[in-house]
């Protein structure tokens, strides 16, 4: 009788062990990894799902991937991204600049929702864009080597005026490239004694809290035409009559002729640029100051 009881106990234990193995659910261990490619509006989420127990082949998840939110401990009730596999990666967009987000790897099955560790990340500043109001003016140029710097122009013209120094060529103001307007302006101001002229008006300007304005070079002025005026921005004047019946003529700081009689202008009605005829230095033309940020 004692032997029969022991045999029955062994059979019972063997059955329970087998049933446990058969019914043992295959689960994951979710792990959230560091967020990468963080930008102002987007980021890349990373994570893994490790199978447990070892050797388990069948995973009965209904969903898996990432959950994220701007508050701690995000759940499937927040933002959710479904990703298949065990090495998880997902690019998310439509985030807010300079904001904190929290992300967790997750999976769901018949037993519920399961989450990994929480990772926090912060989106970057909103990138500067052409046409933005910034640093006292309207952005019309962004430095391709450092997008936190560039050039802005005031959102209105100064009073019309001469270029100045009629009959005098200023070699230090002959540059036309982007980035040369400030040096040109300084050279003109140091060379001219006229009471009011374009470079001096910009150099003396205090506007929107800034006092480092200058007259743009020819290429800087052309960028204002292309990047702002052609897109309906900048409030540039193309209707006020100017000498010889022209309209929309803006002075640059680029001296144009070695005899000292003419400088470069940009025609904002068509984007053309000239020196002689319309660029005579004692013509009262339009003036738009710019500054660097």
What does this structure look like?
- The chain is of the alpha+beta class.
- It folds into two domains: 26-122, Sandwich (Immunoglobulin-like), CATH 2.60.40.10; 133-292, no CATH class.
- It is built from four helices and 16 strands.
- The chain has helices at residues 2-23, 181-191, 198-203, 218-227, and strands at 27-32, 43-52, 63-69, 79-82, 87-92, 100-109, 112-122, 133-134, 137-142, 150-153, 158-161, 249-255, 263-267, 272-274, 285-287, 290-292.
- A four-stranded antiparallel beta sheet has the order 4-3-6-7, with no helix packed on it.
- β9 (137-142) and β10 form a beta hairpin.
- The longest helix has 22 residues, at 2-23.
- It is rod-shaped.
Question: Which short descriptors sum up this protein?
Answer:
293 residues, alpha+beta, Immunoglobulin-like, 2 domains, 4-stranded antiparallel β-sheet, 31% strand, rod-shaped, disordered N terminus
Helices and strands, in order, run as: HEEEEEEEEEEEHHHEEEEE
What multimeric state do the chains show?
single chain
The strand count comes to 16
Based on CA inertia axes, which overall geometry fits? rod-shaped
Which class best fits the helix and strand makeup?
A: alpha+beta
Beta-strand proportion? 25-35%
Mean pLDDT figure: 90
**Residues in helices, as a percent range:** 10-25%
> How many individual helices?
4
Which spans of ≥5 residues are poorly predicted at pLDDT below 50? Answer: 1-24
Q: Largest beta sheet, briefly?
A: 4 strands, antiparallel
The strand order across the widest sheet is 4-3-6-7
> What's the alpha carbon Rg, rounded to whole Å?
35 Å
Q: Could you tell me how far the N terminus lies from the C terminus, measured between alpha carbons in angstroms?
A: 97 Å
Tally of domains: 2
């Amino acid at each position: 009788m004692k032997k029969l009881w022991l045999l029955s106990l062994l059979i019972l234990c063997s059955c329970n062990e087998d049933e446990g193995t058969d019914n043992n659910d295959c689960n994951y261990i979710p792990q959230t990894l560091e967020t990468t490619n963080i930008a102002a509006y987007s980021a890349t989420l990373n994570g893994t799902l490790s199978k447990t127990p070892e050797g388990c082949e069948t995973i009965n998840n209904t969903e898996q991937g990432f959950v994220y939110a701007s508050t701690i401990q995000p759940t499937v009730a927040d933002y959710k991204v479904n990703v298949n596999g065990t090495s998880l990666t997902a690019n998310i967009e439509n985030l807010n600049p300079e904001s904190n987000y929290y992300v967790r790897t997750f999976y769901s099955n018949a037993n519920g929702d399961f989450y990994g560790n929480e990772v926090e990340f912060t989106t970057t500043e909103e990138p500067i864009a052409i046409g933005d109001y910034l640093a006292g003016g309207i952005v019309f140029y962004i430095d391709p080597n450092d997008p936190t710097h560039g050039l802005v122009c005031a959102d209105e013209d100064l009073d019309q005026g001469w270029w100045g120094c009629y009959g005098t060529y200023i070699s230090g103001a002959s540059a036309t490239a982007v980035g040369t307007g400030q040096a040109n302006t300084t050279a003109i101001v140091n060379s001219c004694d006229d009471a009011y002229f374009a470079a001096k008006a910009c150099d003396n300007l205090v506007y929107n809290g800034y006092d480092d304005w200058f007259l743009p070079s020819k290429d800087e002025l052309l960028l204002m035409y292309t990047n702002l005026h052609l897109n309906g921005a900048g409030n540039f004047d193309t209707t006020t009559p100017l000498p010889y019946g022209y309209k929309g003529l803006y002075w640059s700081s680029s001296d144009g002729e070695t005899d000292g009689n003419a400088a470069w202008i940009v025609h904002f009605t068509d984007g053309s640029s000239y020196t002689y005829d319309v660029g005579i230095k004692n013509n009262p033309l339009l003036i738009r100051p710019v500054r660097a940020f």
